[in-house]
Design a protein that fits this description.
Largest sheet: none
Number of helices: 4
Structural class: mainly alpha
Shape: rod-shaped
Strand content: under 5%
Number of domains: 1
Length: 80
């Protein structure tokens, strides 16, 4: 029996990861499960995507509110 080891792989990297832990971590914050599985690029992509989407949803609602307020504020001019 011949055992081949890839270059750069150490014992910690070859240890199997628990898929339940990865799933729970991804449920807490998208991308954490990929970091746990040492898929750093994929984890960064999911994390950035989640943060951008969350920012658009949170601040997008605020922008809609300020657009509704703006026309009323433009009509109020102080005499000078």
């Amino acid at each position: 029996m011949v055992v081949q080891k890839q270059a750069g792989m150490n014992a910690m990297e070859t240890k199997a990861k628990n898929p339940w832990v990865a799933g729970i971590l991804s449920g807490v914050l998208p991308g954490l499960g990929q970091f746990y599985n040492r898929q750093l690029g994929k984890g960064v992509g999911f994390l950035i995507g989640f943060l951008v989407l969350a920012g658009v949803l949170v601040f997008g609602v605020d922008l809609q509110r300020s657009k509704r307020r703006w026309p009323r504020a433009r009509g109020r001019r102080t005499s000078g």
